[in-house]
Amino acid sequence: MVTFRITPKDPVIARDGRPFGNGSRMHSLDWPRASTVAGSLRTMVGKRAGDSFDEGLVSSLKAMEVYGPLPLSSKCDESWLFFPAPKDVLIKKGDKDDREVFVLRPEKVEEGCGTDLGLEFLPAMDPKPKEAFKPSAVPPLWRSDLMVSWLLGKSREVPADGDRVMDLPHKEDRVHVAIDPLTGASLEGMLFSTTALDLRKEGLSLSLKVESKDLSDSLVGGHHPLGGERRLARWDRSKDEDLWSCPDEIRAALKGLRPGDGVRLVLGTSAVFDGGWMPGWLKDKGEGFVPGTSVKVSLVSASTGRWEALSGWSYETKRPKPLYRMVPAGSVYFLRLLEGSAEELAQTWLKPMSDREVHRNDGLGLVLWGLWK
């Protein structure tokens, strides 16, 4: 296992799937896709491994497992991973600086009511609000210690600002034009604008974990483009393996679970499931074994956001890749432990749970584990 820290030297172009042509505007995502970063790394490694990109090398590059990217903040001698905010939290903002935090927990559907989801329980706010309200924005990125506390149910505190939360990167707009030297006007189709993610904040980098059997010797750092427009980034080997391991508190809490207890699965990166929002390993009447373990669970409820589009261009087939609908990062699945030792789940901390291998190798569907009652 190898970890990398990526430090962008320019704003990163991570555009969405909307068409981009003459005179258009390039729209940006809020955070680089895992598949984008994985593709950049594979290209860099392929160049260092001989630059032949023959069938054998391409096969080895595809088999490389790339997990991330997750925000990493370094100050003095401390480094912290940040995770997307879980979608089982709502915040009510008062008249001044008052804030009330509500958690979402499964609640049995009232008699005479039902949905087409096939679930007997749906997320409901705890405590019950006295009146309806429009939720205010939740800090989008949480430091790992804050996330662990939330996953264990130790605290319902969600700071509005400070070192334990982080905003998404600032988006920088640029207008590009090519001038005709004869007329002094812009060339046809050469006036357009781009939006990029400015990740050049002091102490901020992108953290990756990489596993490869065949190309470990080529996993070295250097400068290499990241995203569109060949914007440069610095790729450095790091010693952040401990940051990617399951926290001892989570491991101990999972060890204490018994059949019938509640387990929470939170997506650290967006995931692709063949069944839409439902993981494929839960499609047998909402029950199944967690991949890579002998732990059997049942689905009680889920709190997911709107689907996100995953698209791109295949350099191998020279045609657009299929469009997939992703479950967004931060989505929460409420599970019930049926059999097996929940301690095994610690082995899958920040491992991908997407249904298809190609998406798992790109780091889509990294999971975090917690409890619920």
Automatic annotation (TrEMBL):
NCBIfam families with a match to the protein in the record: cas_cmr3
InterPro entries in UniProt: CRISPR-assoc_protein_Cmr3 (IPR019117), CRISPR-Cmr3_IIIB (IPR010165)
Pfam families for this protein: Cas_Cmr3 (PF09700)
Protein name: CRISPR-associated protein, Cmr3 family
Coiled-coil residue spans: none
Domain of life: Bacteria
